[in-house]
């Protein structure tokens, strides 16, 4: 069982509607997100969705701060048992709670959701009597859902029942015997699973290559009849490094070794937890502060030991993000950035769609706030990208986020890179682009003016792209398709459109080493084979696939001259726009650093 889609609406940082499509096969996900971008909110969406029924969590407690009650909201997660099986969608909201499905309840017992603070809990616990005692953390968190094979009860549940029992007076021998029998079952069951946990953790530790071993010492809980209490409820973490025992490892070992020990214990617990159809592992910057050599073993661990889990890796370290992308080329990647207005904020989610495409989507739903944020982001990213590519001098600030956006814009204007007409149009639209308007101002802003601003920024992007990246053959063909369409030469326009489409998808298949049915010579390979190779690997989202299918008669099928002569100009124009969108998407996948 794998998650195929995550839909968020007005959940924590996620104002408005956001969809993450993981494809029919349910691809694992690598997420890059700067601080404050909503990365942790995405982690919480997955975690709280899975736990919402078991822990009786109300959605209203996690609704986005900037929306009213009437805006509602939800987290929806879709999943499939295989890529050929039907998709099932479950919703968690104030109105609907479908998370009582057995597959989700089972997943709540096996999921792993770790961040850096989770690792700290192991080696920075307050030590008792010069020891690191993990009993409470193990019973209430790490092994909370593990089953005692002797009683078939969860350890957290069983221990809670034992704690509720009062230690009887010594005269009540029958009640004392009942309590001791319950403790014997608990002790024997816990000792058995601790041995499994230790062995699995030792296997994981070997991947890090440190001369470190651990043991989890548990003597068993017993009844202190004299003081009428329970004693021995402790599990001592014993660490041996270079054959030397360390009872307080955090005082002697470095952070890399401590993190490796903590991560090994947490991951080992996932191996001994009850089985379930859906196994989810979320790692949110668990390796923060470690150098790259100490992070790389985690990649091998995930590949070798957790290939049956649905994994979500989150980080704010761009270098680590790029390394993960290279090691897991089939995984989906996503970038989150913080977007701000004067009285609101929301994550900017960068997937296959460009910022301007997202701005248009929100404008069509009359969400001016979200449209303006994506519009400003598109403008900002393009200006910074252009200044970097052209080595333009910008007034220095230690924190680059503090450089005013106007500094980049004025630098470009001084260089005379754009014509006077575009400068004039940009000046008209700058109130929506450069100045973050308030929610109230945007609510009354004319839709036409925001649309005009989007069109102007698109023209600016094209102008700057043409300077940095000379037109490729595909771009030349697209330009010719547009020119012939303006001249009402539908036949020639369609020819160049098909040529641009063919060149781009063949180029992409070669760059990504995709497999197509071999024919010699290669020009006999049907165009559809290249297209099928791309969509089979889920490189593009469903909406773009649908648009290509809508206009396939102009793109892939060679219509007759007579058919093209009567074809609506608007349809051919829409087909050209769709192929252009496809080109941008494929460019971003092959060269993510060159296409903002």
Reconstruct the topology from this structure:
Layout: E1 2-11, E2 14-21, E3 29-33, H1 39-51, E4 74-80, E5 88-92, H2 102-110, E6 112-115, H3 116-123, H4 135-142, H5 155-164, H6 173-206, E7 212-217, E8 222-224, E9 229-231, E10 236-241, E11 244-246, H7 255-272, E12 280-284, H8 292-305, E13 310-315, H9 318-327, E14 332-340, E15 345-350, H10 355-364, H11 368-389, H12 405-414, H13 420-433, H14 439-443, H15 447-468, H16 473-486, H17 490-511, H18 527-536, H19 542-550, H20 552-555, H21 561-565, H22 569-590
Parallel strand pairs: 3-13, 3-14, 6-12, 12-13
Antiparallel strand pairs: 1-2, 1-4, 4-5, 7-10, 8-9, 10-11, 14-15
Helix pairs in contact: 3-7, 5-6, 6-7, 10-11, 10-15, 11-12, 11-15, 13-15, 16-17, 16-22, 17-18, 17-22, 19-22
Q: Overall mean pLDDT score?
A: 84
Rg, nearest Å: 29 Å
Sheet with the most strands, sense and barrel status: 6 strands, mixed
Give me the oligomer status.
single chain
CATH superfamily of the largest domain: P-loop containing nucleotide triphosphate hydrolases
So how many helices? 22
Q: SS-based structural class?
A: alpha/beta
Helix content: 40-55%
Give me the count of strands: 15
Low-confidence stretches: none
Number of domain modules? 4
Secondary-structure arrangement, i.e. CATH architecture of the largest domain:
3-Layer(aba) Sandwich
Question: According to CATH, what is the class of the largest domain?
Answer: Alpha Beta
Strand order of the largest sheet: 6-12-13-3-14-15
User: What spatial form do the alpha-carbon principal axes imply?
Assistant: elongated
Determine the N-to-C terminus distance: 34 Å
- CATH topology annotation of the largest domain: Rossmann fold
Strand content: 5-15%
């Amino acid at each position: 069982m794998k998650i195929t889609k995550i839909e968020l609406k007005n959940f924590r940082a996620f104002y408005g509607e956001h969809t993450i499509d993981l494809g029919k096969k349910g691809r694992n996900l690598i997420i890059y997100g700067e601080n404050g971008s909503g990365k942790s909110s995405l982690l919480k969406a997955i975690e709280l969705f899975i736990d919402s029924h078991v822990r009786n969590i109300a959605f209203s407690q996690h609704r986005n701060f900037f929306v009213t009650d009437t805006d509602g909201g939800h987290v929806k997660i879709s999943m499939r048992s295989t890529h050929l099986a039907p998709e099932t969608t479950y919703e968690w909201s104030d109105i609907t709670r479908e998370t009582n499905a057995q597959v989700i309840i089972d997943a709540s017992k096996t999921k792993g959701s770790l961040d850096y603070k989770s690792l700290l809990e192991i080696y920075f616990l307050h030590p008792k009597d010069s020891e690191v005692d993990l009993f409470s953390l193990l019973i209430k968190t790490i092994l909370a859902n593990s089953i005692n094979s002797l009683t078939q009860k969860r350890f957290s549940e069983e221990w809670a029942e034992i704690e509720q029992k009062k230690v009887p007076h010594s005269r009540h021998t029958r009640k004392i015997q009942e309590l001791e029998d319950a403790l014997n079952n608990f002790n024997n069951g816990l000792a058995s699973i601790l041995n499994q946990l230790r062995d699995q953790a030792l296997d994981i530790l070997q991947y890090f290559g440190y001369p470190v071993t651990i043991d989890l010492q548990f003597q068993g809980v017993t009844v202190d009849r004299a003081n009428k209490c329970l004693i021995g409820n402790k599990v001592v973490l014993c660490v041996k490094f270079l054959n030397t025992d360390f009872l307080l490892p955090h005082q002697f070992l470095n952070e890399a070794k401590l993190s490796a020990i903590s991560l090994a214990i947490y991951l080992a617990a996932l191996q001994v937890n009850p089985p379930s159809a859906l196994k989810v592992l979320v790692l949110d910057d668990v390796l923060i502060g470690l150098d790259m050599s100490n992070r790389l073993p985690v990649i091998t661990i995930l590949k070798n030991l957790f290939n049956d889990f649905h994994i979500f890796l989150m980080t704010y370290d761009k270098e680590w993000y790029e390394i993960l992308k290279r090691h897991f080329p089939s995984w989906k990647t996503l970038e989150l950035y913080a977007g701000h207005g004067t009285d609101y904020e929301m994550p900017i989610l960068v997937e296959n769609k460009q910022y301007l495409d997202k701005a248009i989507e929100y404008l069509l739903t009359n969400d001016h706030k979200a449209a303006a944020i994506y519009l400003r982001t598109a403008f900002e990213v393009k200006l910074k990208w252009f200044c970097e590519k052209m080595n333009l001098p910008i007034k220095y600030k230690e924190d680059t986020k503090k450089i005013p956006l106007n500094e980049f814009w004025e630098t470009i204007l001084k260089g005379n890179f754009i014509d006077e007409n575009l400068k004039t149009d940009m000046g008209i639209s700058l109130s929506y682009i450069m100045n973050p308007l308030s929610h109230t101002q945007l609510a009354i802003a004319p839709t036409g003016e925001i649309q005009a601003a989007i069109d102007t920024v698109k023209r600016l992007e094209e102008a700057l792209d043409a300077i940095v990246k000379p037109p490729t053959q595909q771009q030349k063909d697209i330009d010719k398709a547009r020119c012939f369409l303006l001249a009402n030469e539908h036949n020639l326009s369609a020819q160049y459109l098909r040529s641009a489409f063919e060149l781009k998808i063949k180029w992409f298949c070669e760059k990504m080493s995709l497999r197509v049915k071999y024919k010699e010579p290669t020009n006999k390979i049907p165009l559809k084979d290249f297209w099928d190779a791309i969509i089979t690997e889920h490189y593009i989202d469903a909406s773009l696939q649908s648009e290509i299918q809508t206009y396939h008669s102009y793109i892939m099928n060679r219509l007759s001259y007579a058919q093209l002569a009567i074809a609506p100009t608007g349809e051919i124009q829409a087909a050209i726009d769709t192929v252009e969108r496809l080109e941008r998407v494929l460019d971003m996948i092959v060269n993510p650093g060159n296409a903002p």
